[in-house]
Write a structure and sequence with these properties.
This protein is an all-alpha fold and 104 residues long. It contains six helices and no strands.
Length: 104
C-alpha cells in the first residue's frame, strides 16, 4: 500500500481515535492487543517508493507514534494492563517507523 493512499491515511488517523483507535485508547491507559496487532500490520503493509516525497499527513500521523506509545506504558501499568505487551508494541512501532522514515 502506498503511504499516500487515502485508505492508509484514514486508517492511520483512526489509530488516534479516542474510542476506536489503539493510540487513542493508550492515551487513556488502555492497551488493546487486537488493535495493536492491526496497527503494526498496517505499518508493515505501507510502502514508500525510494525518492518519493512524503505526504504531509502521513508524516503527521506516524512520526509521533513511537514516542507517544512509549510514554503511555506507565499509564497502561497503572490501569492494570500488561506493560510488557505495551512496551513490545511501542518497540514494534519504533522499529517500523525508523524503517519507513529512516534514522539520522
Amino acid at each position: 500500500m502506498k503511504h499516500s493512499d487515502p485508505a492508509v491515511l484514514e486508517a492511520l488517523d483512526l489509530a488516534w481515535d479516542d474510542e476506536d483507535g489503539v493510540l487513542g485508547k493508550l492515551r487513556d491507559g488502555q492497551f488493546d492487543a487486537a488493535l495493536a496487532e492491526g496497527y503494526v500490520r498496517l505499518l508493515h503493509g505501507i510502502e514508500i517508493e525510494e525518492g518519493a516525497a512524503l505526504h504531509a499527513d502521513f508524516v503527521r500521523l506516524v512520526w509521533f507514534a513511537p514516542l507517544f506509545s512509549e510514554w503511555q506504558i506507565p499509564r497502561v501499568a497503572e490501569n492494570g494492563g500488561d506493560a510488557r505487551e505495551a512496551s513490545n508494541f511501542s518497540d514494534k512501532i519504533r522499529e517500523r517507523v525508523m524503517e519507513l522514515l529512516g534514522a539520522p
